[in-house]
Design goal:
Elements lengths: L2 H20 L7 H10 L8 H14 L4 E6 L9 E6 L13 H13 L9 H11 L18 H17 L3 E6 L7 E14 L2 E8 L2 E6 L3 E6 L12 H4 L15 E8 H9 L7 E3 L1 H5 L4 H4 L7 E8 L3 H8 L5 E5 L1 H17 L1
Antiparallel strand pairs: 1-2, 3-4, 3-7, 4-5, 5-6, 8-10, 8-11, 9-10
Length: 351
């Protein structure tokens, strides 16, 4: 059943549960049930046929024991009509003992993941719907992540990719070049992982014999490759990214020892929010073994700390280190120093 139909059925079942629970021990005519469900604006063209299917769903799929009473029509003439309710007067399919504070906390946590629009995560969205009715009108959220301005567009692509990964389907799509939208490449990929980083979603998957990653905002025309035989992942995403800050890397990149100086002003911030798991303070004598004297000569060593880490040099690493401006100075390796010098010179020339 398509996800949107599952959504509608769950909302109809919720409405039926509310009606049955509103008058414990009572039963209701089909017309009354249909009218109540329609009043909740959760179904279009709700009728006896759909009601019968919902009743069957409650009994067969959910194991709910229903009370059924055979009554004559109001005219007293004709075939008997079945009235429905819960056999157990205290039963509710959606009954819970969760306090309002706990419901608000659950909604805050679900809100962090920004699930709206992602049909593949329907069960979690239904939690939000179920608890939403109890939230006071003047309630204001107390927790959130920065929203992506292209959230709706990305949600559509997440839907397609999540389904393809779950169903183990090979996909085809086109990619716009990062710097030139007129350059478009075609890809056939075995998708297996999705990750969000710095307000952007990425897909990881096999393309040929290599594990590649793709930014969702640059993908288009995603479709299933009906002739493709899916190749499962044989490595964890944590293993792939263990030597990387962020997402970007090349298959032949190797981690390198990186040594840098941070001023006392920024050292606590840098150390409390490590760029990489290998990051640690080192003493001056260890630095002298690697870094030339002419580099250390003008360094204000008494007003800062030395830090070392081992990771791949990539765009995210350079961006992170440069974000500390004059408070951070790269000491080794020389190629990273030269790259940052070049970037700073070009920036200076632009001004």
């Amino acid at each position: 059943m398509p996800d949107n139909k599952i959504n509608e059925r769950l909302l109809r079942i919720r409405a039926i549960d509310e009606l049955f629970s509103s008058k414990p021990g009572s039963t209701f005519l089909p017309e009354s049930i249909i009218s109540y469900v329609m009043s909740k604006n959760v179904a279009r063209d709700y009728n006896r046929f759909k009601l019968a299917r919902d009743i069957k769903f409650l009994e067969d799929d959910k194991g709910v024991r229903l009370k059924k009473e055979q009554v004559l029509p109001s005219s007293g003439v004709g075939r008997k009509i079945t009235r429905y309710g819960y056999e157990d007067s205290k039963f509710s399919l959606f009954h819970d003992d969760i306090s309002l504070d706990d419901k608000l906390l659950i909604r805050e946590i679900l809100g962090i993941f920004q699930l709206k629009g992602i049909d593949s995560l329907t069960p979690f969205v239904m939690f939000d719907i179920n608890y939403g009715k109890d939230v006071p009108k003047n309630y204001s959220p107390i927790l959130s992540f920065t929203k992506d301005p292209s959230e709706k567009k990305i949600s559509t692509r997440l839907n397609t990719l999540l389904t393809s990964i779950r169903e183990k389907k090979v996909i085809r799509f086109k990619m716009n070049d990062r710097f030139d939208d007129s350059k478009i490449t075609k890809h056939i990929v075995h998708p297996w992982y999705l990750r969000e980083y710095n307000r952007r979603w990425y897909l990881f998957g096999w393309e040929g014999n290599n594990i590649e990653h793709y930014a969702l905002d640059r993908m288009s025309r995603i479709s299933k490759d009906v002739n493709g035989t899916y190749k499962c992942a044989n490595i964890s995403i944590d293993k792939i990214l263990e030597d990387v800050i962020g997402i970007n890397f090349k298959k032949d990149d190797k981690p390198e020892d990186i040594i840098f100086w941070v001023s006392n002003k920024s050292s606590n911030f840098v150390l409390s929010k490590p760029m990489h798991k290998t990051m640690a303070k080192i003493d001056y004598e260890e630095v002298r073994k690697v870094v030339p004297e002419d580099v250390l000569y003008t360094l204000p060593q008494k007003t800062g700390v030395f830090i070392k880490m081992k990771c791949i040099i990539n765009y995210e690493l350079r961006r992170e280190m440069m974000s500390f401006r004059e408070e951070l100075i790269v000491l080794a390796p020389n190629k990273l120093r030269d790259e940052i010098k070049g970037i700073l010179k070009r920036m200076y020339d632009n001004y």
